[in-house]
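Project standup — Tuesday

K.O.: blocked on the structure for the chain from last sprint. Re-posting the sequence here as requested.
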Amino acid sequence: MQEGFAIFDDADRLILANEKYLNAVPVARDILQRNGTFEELVRAVFEAGLIEAVDDDDDYERILENRLHQHRNPGEPVIVKYAGNRWFLLREAKTPEGGTVLTFNDITSLKFAEEAARQAKERAELASRTKTEFLANMSHELRTPLNSVIGMSEVLITETFGELNNDTYLEYAGDIHMSGRHLLAVITDILDIAKIEAGEILLVEAEVEVADVLGECQRMIRDRLEASRVNLAPA
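H.V.: unblocked you, prediction finished:
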């Protein structure tokens, strides 16, 4: 058998155990030889330091009584932590004669895997929180100068303080204004992504003019298209 295995009779005396069980619980060899009881076995396990130390005698007796109750009224599997950070899954069942059959599996590797997964999850959550905080701070730092660029370019476009008297300058001012607003929208989207990850986003649907959006895209990539000698035309 791959599992550790032990049988206790109707008087709760240990009458049979395989090598896997005896190797995991060495004190059981003496208990088996003299047909000792399960309670004697549990006490011997504590005295040998196989179970992690408890704070005082009250804790010792409480844990002992709890384990005896589980043994005498078998139900759900029991997970026991042994010294040396070893974990075992115990299963117990009553025999028709009134005895008890005990099997156990060493689940130490599974526990280590669970702990590694938990730590990885915590690290991922910490990284996500750090990224969210960084994006929020970065977005705030970029918004302030961008608002100035947008505001100044709008002053030029509207010729608030006088005519520019140059259509090219006016067109460039329009491009600056449009690019600034686009970059501000991108930063807002980045911040929205952070809000989505934090579960704080509110979805708002609105109608847009597709032609205007495409026109803005065309103006933004116009210089790169010209430099690459690529012509962009509507389908």
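K.O.: great, moving the ticket to review. The chain has eight helices and five strands. Residues 114-202 form a domain with the Helix Hairpins fold (CATH 1.10.287).
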